[in-house]
Write a structure and sequence with these properties.
It contains eleven helices and twelve strands. Strands 1, 2, 3, 4, 5, 8, 9, 10, 11 and 12 form a ten-stranded mixed β-sheet that branches. Strands 6-7 form a two-stranded antiparallel sheet. The chain binds ligand PBG and zinc ion.
Length: 322
Amino acid sequence: MIQRTRRLRKNPIIRELVAETRLSKDMFIYPYFVVKGNNITQPIEAMPGISRFSPDQLVKDVEKGLKVGVNKILLFGVGEDKSEDAHSAYDHNTVVADSIRQLKKNFGNDLYIVTDVCLCAYTTHGHCGILHNDYVQNDPTLNILAKMALTHAQAGADMVAPSDMMDGRVGAIREMLDENNFESTPIMSYSTKFASAYYGPFREAADSAPGKGDRKSYQMDYRNAHEAVREAIIDEQEGADIVMIKPALAYLDVIRAVRDNTDLPVACYNVSAEYTMAKVAAKAGLVDGDRIIMENMYAFARAGANIIITYHAREIAEKGWV
Ligand code: PBG
Ligand code: ZN
């Protein structure tokens, strides 16, 4: 007897009925790059459709996003003073802190603000921690990251997201937040972050490329899947509220493995080059960009991601694809 799997594919209604994976606009977080100044909108060449905004322009763009339901954003600060010890990272007047205050003044709790916590945009050498003898020093970096997270919370951030990959940073940030009455501020850890060429366009956008060397002594080796799960579990033990896999497209197996090994919500980060590849190929007329974008989004959800951080979030919401 022929097994007739095609019965349930006959028309759109039955296909919808049996669809195993669903997306909701509530799953998406939209990243923003913010720069100091006023009235600035700088398109990022390597990421068609994405711009750096000064805080006033950020407020305007977020307002447009809110109208279509983009109510969770991730902030990256660009162009702050760079130093060996990254002290500007925890200044109370960084562009990130200013942006949070302005956004909260305008939108209050209608907008959920996540901030990236990392030193690479604040160090002269562009590494994610303090450099000594050409090696990124783990423990001396922890307190600076914790102070940076605290500054963001004090400015009004709803959640902090450390992306540096130092050992022990989730615990250090948790302790700092708790000691300062921010015990209710969650940590979304970039727990499982690979040393990846897929961050190329972001480093242009955020001006955060390492001047010398690479990030392989702290970000993960992409050949390792067991270690990837271990990283997520360690962060859970240190107090992370959400764990993340980054990048996403080439790491669907890792998303699944982490999903199966933690009870925390699992996020994935559809990173800059993943975005750029889809956009540029579509612009050149070589692929159907709209369809490729959504095929990718469903793949993340099917692999087990509960939360998707993506530069496509705004377009997906505007076009009503979810
Ligand atoms: C900073 C950071 C990076 C990204 C997010 N946070 C770059 C890096 O680690 O080099 C990449 C995001 C993207 O490519 O979209 N540590
Ligand atoms: Zn970094």
